[in-house]
C-alpha cells in the first residue's frame, strides 16, 4: 500500500533548498477541489473496500479471447488519482492488463479532437442499445446503426474516423494519444493482440454490416485491425486511473500538466460513459453508483469523479454483461461512502 503526494515532496525539496515557497504547485496540477473528500478519507474508504471484497470470487474471466481466459483471476488492484495529483494505490498495481473496451473512450476523445462533437455525433450517434456490447442485431435495428462510440460497432466506426496516411500512422497516433492521457508511454501487449486478432470474426462481421449501412469511414478490416490493437494496449491500474483523472481534470493530465483533450469535449465523453460505459449494465450502474465509467473485458473499470479525480480497479472476473464484478463492487462502495455519486447534491458540497 502506498500513498504519494508529489506536491508535498516538491514543497519539502524546496524548503530543504531554503527556497521561499510561494506558489509551489502550479506546474504539477490544479488546486484541490473544495468539495473533494480529504486524502485520509479516500485512503481509509478505499482500503476498507479492498478488504471487504478481496475474497469475493464471483464471476469468471472473459474466454472468447483465449489469452484472457488464462489470466490469473485472483489479481486485484485499485488506484485513485486526484485532479491535484495525489495517488493512492493498493493490491496488484504492477500487472499490465489489456485496456480492452476502455480504449473506446480515448479513441472517442481523439475523434472529438480531430472532428469536433457535431461531426462525431452525426457519424456515430449516441444512443444506448439495450443489447450486448458486440450485438449485430443492434446494428441492424438501431436507426443510426452505429448506436454510440462505446459499443463495438460504434467504436469500430469511431476508430475509422481517425485520420492518417495509412494504418500504421493511424495506430501510432492513437497509441501516442493514450500515452499522453496516461502520462507515460504505453505499449501493445502482443500476445493479447495476436489472440484477439485470430478470433475477432464477430467484429469483422460488424464492420461489414456497418459498410452496408455506409456507417464506416475507412476500410472495414483495416479499422477492425486498428481497433483490435487499441484494445490490446497494456495498462496497470495507476496508469488507467491517470487516464481517468485527465478526464476529471477537464482534459489536462494532472501528472504532466499537459492538455490532452479540449475542455469543451469532456462533457460529450463523460455523458457517453454515463449512458453506455457498462454496456447493458449501464442503467443499473447509474442507479447505484452515479458516475461516468467504462469497463473492459480485460477486467478493468475506470470511473471519473469530475473535478475530483478517478478510480481504476482491476480484477479479471466478469459478470454476464462483461463487467468486472469486484471492480463494480469496490467503486460502488467508494462512491457511496465518499459522496462521489454525481446525482447526490452532497457530491457538490450541499450537506
Ligand atoms: N476487444 C474486445 C472486443 O472487441 C473489447 C470488448 C470489451 O472490452 O468489452 O470484443
Commentary on this structure:
The protein is α+β, with helices and mostly antiparallel strands and 351 residues long. It has a single domain, classed as Beta-lactamase (3-Layer(aba) Sandwich), CATH 3.40.710.10. It has 15 helices and nine strands. The protein has helices at 6-16, 39-53, 66-69, 103-115, 117-124, 136-141, 152-161, 167-182, 190-197, 201-212, 220-231, 237-248, 266-276, 282-288, 325-337; strands at 2-5, 77-82, 86-91, 97-98, 187-188, 233-235, 293-295, 300-305, 309-314. The strands form two sheets. Strands 1-3-2-9-8-7 form a six-stranded antiparallel sheet, with helices on both faces. Strand 8 and strand 9 (309-314) form a beta hairpin. The two termini are 31 Å apart. The model is unreliable at 5-29 (pLDDT under 50). Bound molecules: glutamic acid.
- Unreliable stretches: 5-29
Number of helical stretches of at least 4 residues: 15
Classified by CATH, the class is Alpha Beta
How far apart the termini lie comes to 31 Å
Biggest sheet descriptor: 6 strands, antiparallel
Question: Which helices and strands occur, and which strands form pairs?
Answer:
Blueprint: E1 2-5, H1 6-16, H2 39-53, H3 66-69, E2 77-82, E3 86-91, E4 97-98, H4 103-115, H5 117-124, H6 136-141, H7 152-161, H8 167-182, E5 187-188, H9 190-197, H10 201-212, H11 220-231, E6 233-235, H12 237-248, H13 266-276, H14 282-288, E7 293-295, E8 300-305, E9 309-314, H15 325-337
Antiparallel strand pairs: 1-3, 2-3, 2-9, 4-6, 5-6, 7-8, 8-9
Helix pairs in contact: 2-15, 4-5, 4-7, 4-8, 7-10, 7-11, 8-11, 8-12, 10-11
The chain binds glutamic acid (GLU).
